[in-house]
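Predict structure. Input: Peptidase M48 domain-containing protein, 175 residues.
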Amino acid sequence: MVTCLDWIDHLNWEVIVIEDKFKKAACFAGGGKIIVYTGLLDHFSTDAEVATVIAHEVGHVIARHSIEMIKIFTLCFPTRLLVTPLLQRHELEADYIGMLLLAAAGFDPHAAPLLFEKLERIKGQSVLTKLLCFFQLKAHPSRRRRAWLLSQPKVMEEAMKLYREATSDDGPDKA
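Output follows.
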């Protein structure tokens, strides 16, 4: 059976770790390449935290966010005011897809909201920075909001169902 996601199987997936103080990760359109900087990894202590970051970036690839942005820039010359809400939606969508992937891979999905809470503490903002951010348009929603959204009962129940299937003795691959 052919599905709309068959193209994912043909990507040359690769996670590249770059030694640098940056505290971020990124993915690239079309190729399945994910970059994680050691500055981000220095703050993680569990496989589930690292898996959450990678799953989030895979979520961007699956949702074809880069391709969507290329189409928008090809069709028009959007302003930051028009693009920012779309970028924020992309981040939230990648969070959701990433958490479901995390759960389906057998990692406890509670790791996802906990990761964003941890990132909030790591990259904490001063009162002045928060005030200035109020006046500028941010591409990423607040980490606190992202953690809250992933913790919502309906979202967590969906992820926990995948997690239980992945970790049960008669999981999807055992049938």
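The chain has a mean pLDDT of 84.
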